[in-house]
# Entry
Amino acid sequence: MNNLLTVRIQEKMDTFSKGQRLIARYISEHYDKVAFMTASRLGATVGVSESTVVRFATEIGYTGYPELQQAMQEMIRNKLTSVQRMQVTEGRIKNNDILDSIFTQDMDIIRRTMEETSHENFYNAVEAICQSRKIYILGARSSLALATFLRYYLGLLFDHVVLVQCTSEAEIFEQMIRVNEQDVVIGISFPRYSRKAVKAMNFAHNQGAKVVAITDSTLSPLAEISDYLLLARSDIASIVDSLCAPLSLINALIVAIGFRRRKEAEETFTRLENIWDEYGVYEKVDEKDKA
# Structure
């Protein structure tokens, strides 16, 4: 269990009521289950009221039960197997409509990301990217989709963008062999964190490059080595990661960089539009045809 949470419980143990001691003991022994229980369900399981559970959370220093629950979720998400993730999701959705449940979950994730993302880090990262000699983007496993998306749009705004292929550690270091303090390396990783991504970001950091980490928590292995930490919440949606918040953050990053390089962006897209028209890249849709 998370050491901070353990310390909080132990420090307060002597002051707990009988019911709160029951909660503390159950959390210590079954925190992986409690992380996805509602306050009312935890209370029913332990044999206390929901209000006792809420008071317990505030007693150990959290603003409420949701914050305590989030702390437990963060510490176990990187340990859950795919089968366990499916079981957790099934337990959360139960008899609710799957489509509505996932939409609601994603909206909550984006809201929490808006509340927690540092605006200062965001705009400092934008400036560092715009001032860099070369931009490296790295994302393994499911984060590769986000890295590819970011590479596509930054590639339209800069002529020095590299999407690092993460097929093997040897290839990663070969592609990044010339990275230096003039460069920016953007690393994207969410639970379960890619070991290759962490090693590559450590290498970039040691070479003096500016490191931008797009990840989910200050507990992420990318957080400690980053110059600019951009937090975006992710959550479990069965066997897949919910990456709506990271994608929204990346969209904002691209737009901010586009505004920062407005002149270059306008010239590039004006030229591209002419090329697309000349070579018939896109199918033209006539409004009359649609009718």
Observations:
- Residues 96 and 132 are 48 Å apart (CA to CA).
- DSSP finds 14 helices and seven strands in the chain.
